[in-house]
Amino acid sequence: MLTAAAFSRLELRQRLHLLLVLGACLALSVGLVAFRVFLTQQIYFVFLLWNLLLALIPFGLSTMLGLAAGPVRARVLVPVGAVWLLFFPNAPYLLTDLFHLEPRSGVPYWYDLILLLTCAWTGLLLAYASLLDMQTLVQRRLGTAISWGFVVVALLLSSFGIYLGRFLRLNSWHVVTNPLTFFYDILTRVLHPAAHPRTWGVTLLFGVFLVLGYSTVRLLGRLRPAPAEA
């Protein structure tokens, strides 16, 4: 049986390993973009660095909550959780940057493929790591079943956010800078779903994909290598 202190040390060690892996993915993403700029003297894919920065925001918020000493009070968890949910779609949104893949002069096609896949994978890892932190907080307060309900809802809302960002070019900060347009576009699609089939096609299919991906990652995390034969 692990003591509270031993569990805390184990949790911190796992967190450190996660940060090292995420740091390596981020470093590779930045390096690939920087080398492409150096090679082509063009800044076309530099926008990926901004997208990665936005993807770090929900991870930073969930890490802060996850490492907080003692139980997180509702008066802190609710507003921080709301901000987290607002920025959370920015992490899996990086998957849709694969839309930018096409042959371009000055760099091999396969290089851009690896660059985009690396950034997309990094965004997805940041999303799942952040979601795991938030699910853990919900599970401690409300139980396992509700925590998985939270996961499904968060990923479906995230998929809707991905649609808003990719097809309507809305961003998280438009809630503050342009709230009327932001909420009008959302309300229109909620009240008239039949008139917006692409909205709900993207939301549902992307949501199913993200839920299955997260469930797979959680399952893989529980697997252990078979003991070596004597």
Spatial separation of the terminal alpha carbons: 27 Å
Q: Care to count the β-strands? A: 0
The biggest sheet, with number of strands, parallel, antiparallel or mixed sense and barrel status, is: none
Molecular shape: globular
Mean pLDDT: 90
Helix and strand pattern: HHHHHHHH
Q: Give the uncertain stretches in residue-range form.
A: 1-7
Q: Total helix count?
A: 8
Number of domains: 1
Structure in words:
- Residues 1-7 have low confidence and may be disordered.
- The protein has 8 helices and no strands.
- The chain is globular and about 55 Å long.
- The protein has one domain (14-221).
- By secondary structure, it is mostly helical.
- It has helices spanning 4-40, 47-66, 74-87, 109-142, 144-167, 174-177, 179-191, 197-222.
- The longest helix is centred in the first third of the chain and has 37 residues, at 4-40.
Describe the secondary structure blueprint for this structure.
Elements: H1 4-40, H2 47-66, H3 74-87, H4 109-142, H5 144-167, H6 174-177, H7 179-191, H8 197-222
Helix pairs in contact: 1-4, 2-3, 2-4, 4-5, 5-8
The gist of it:
The protein has helices spanning 4-40, 47-66, 74-87, 109-142, 144-167, 174-177, 179-191, 197-222. The chain has 230 residues and is an all-alpha fold.
Task: Label this structure with key terms.
230 residues, mainly alpha
